[in-house]
Amino acid sequence: MKKEKFSLLLAVAFWTVVNLNSSSLYAQNSNPWPISGPVGIGTQTPSAALEIDNASNFIPNPLNNNQVQYPNVCNCTPSLKINSQTYNYVSNQVLPSMYNLFEIDYLNNNLTPPIPSPSTLFSVNTLGQTAINKATASHTLDVGGDINADGNLSVLGGLINSYTTTGSLIMNANTSSVNGPAVELYGSNYAPDPARAGSLHFVSYGNAVPPGGGYPPFVFEFINYDPSIPTWTTNVAITTDGRTFMGSDLISNYWSSMPTGYNLYVSKGILTERLKVAVDPSNGGTDWSDFVFAKNYKLMPLSKVETYVKENKHLPEIPSATEVNKDGIDVGQMDAKLLQKIEELTLYAIQQQKEIESLKGEIKEMKK
Question: Is residue 3 classed exposed, middle or buried when 0-12, 13-18 and 19+ CB atoms within 10 A define those classes?
Fold first, then answer.
């Protein structure tokens, strides 16, 4: 009878081990606890100090009537779950509002002298805040070092802050601004280079002229997407050599219609209350028209002016309508030319007044 009971217990134990291997967890559970060896949960052959195998959560889905194999169904449960409860049995005890629920620490005893306390590599506190390479977290994610994202990095409904006035926040399309475009924001008290303090830099990357021509070398573009059309429209663009284009029609016809030698191109006009045009002082004042009143200035006789106007249909030294339609006008130069013609008219009027006075004298003498 005893032998039969022992056989029955052995069969039950064997059945339990088989079922544990397929659906339950395994763990070392001996007294005393072993001082060495790996621990396996969900596996009898752990390959690390602690291995958790939760593969048994996948339940094969049987074939249906049409013999079509559907994907396996996941009866998903966490592989590792840590529950923490705080009880205050002493009325005057002040419990911490936050503490680390889970930590991964590292102690390097190979250093001389050894680090007195372990450094925390990873922690999660009771508020759900995670710290990487830091002892504690004060935000949802705190990282004590650089972050390298091989994929996309999205921030939904939040802010990106450097949390210091002496630091910087730099976004590079590549490893640095010398091999790709970048956006650089510097704190108001940026210490490494005070000249950059409080500044915002948009760094472009590209050739001054694209090889073989083609699309213009725009390195900054302000683009709007209209979902009602739908279409993308570039409204402002800046080239690698600093020329700025405002107006989608100018940008789309960049190569065919734009004269060179200018830094700002605007379509459809500019509305401003004031416009000041400077002249180049290095030319000694010759960009303005006071030279008309110099003693050696040769005023064109009115007879020659008349001949010129009849032949060319515009004043001397003033561009024709054809030239204006092709090249436009330089406001500063045109104002100077218009002033020159006004000053020449003044000289003509002075000459005519002298002739009138002379004729009056002659007529007066004739009447005596």
Answer: exposed
pLDDT score recorded for residue 256: 56
Strand partners, 103: 123
Element (H, E) at 326: helix 321-327
Long-range contacts formed by 240-243: CB under 8 A, 24+ apart: 240/204, 240/206, 240/207, 240/208, 241/208, 241/217
The model's pTM is 0.58
Query: Which carries the bigger pLDDT value, residue 149 or residue 137?
Result: 137
Q: Where do we find the tokens 């069969």?
A: 11
Kindly write down the DSSP assignment for every residue of 225-293, as one continuous string: EETTTTEEEEEEEEETTS-EEESHHHHHTHHHHPPSS-SEEESS----S-------GGGTTTTSSGGGG
Rounded-to-integer distance, Cα 225 and Cα 234, Å:
9
- Using an 8 Å Cβ cutoff, are 321 and 314 in contact? yes
For strands 182-186 and 244-246, give the pairing: unpaired
Residue among 318, 276, 283, 319 nearest 300 (CA): 318
Q: What is the mean pLDDT of residues 199-223?
A: 74
Task: Map residue 354 onto helix, strand or coil.
Answer: helix
DSSP result, 3-38: HHHHHHHHHHHHHHHHHHHHHS------SSPPSSS-
